[in-house]
Amino acid sequence: LTTNLTAFFREAHHFPILAEHARRRHGEYRVWSAAASTGEEPYSIAITLADALGMAPGRWKVFASDIDTEVLEKARSGIYRLSELKTLSPQQLQRYFMRGTGPHEGLVRVRQELANYVEFSSVNLLEKQYNVPGPFDAIFCRNVMIYFDKTTQEDILRRFVPLLKPDGLLFAGHSENFSNLVREFSLRGQTVYALSKDKA
Questions:
Q1: Which helix (H) or strand (E) holds 112?
Q2: Which of 3, 117, 127, 156 has its Cα between 20 and 30 A from that of 145?
Q3: CATH superfamily of the domain spanning 14-77+112-195
């Protein structure tokens, strides 16, 4: 199963919460984008963290995964249509993207300095164990759970528990409710969850 509906800064209210959370943490801030699709979500996370924390080596890292290797190839390439970047400020566009010229007019590419902070890998959320470099300060798993049955959703959420640091955040999609599914997570904000206190 793959879901490829995605956009830069989709569900925009999540990103200021992420920035604020990242500013309060020490050491390397690590985020997992668990359904990265064609890369818009992980690059939005990367832009948010670069704006909030700067670009010092070792300050933050985004691990991005998807089951679909084809969409991951597009994500790795970091090439998008300029028209897809309407949600970015002119400063962000200039700072983090290069504009294509000639035959590449109308296209932009993620600058290498930003891309270096994003690592792409194939991960199937239905597998019993995830080969990911956790634990993470935040996990984005947005708009993918709606395609699974309730038992599968519960299994996936429980597999996230050891991969999230204490006081880490789990970001869900707008139509998803995780706290109804498992006791391990409680609601912290609009579609933002944290480990329940007795689990953290």
A1: helix 112-115
A2: 117
A3: Vaccinia Virus protein VP39 (3.40.50.150)
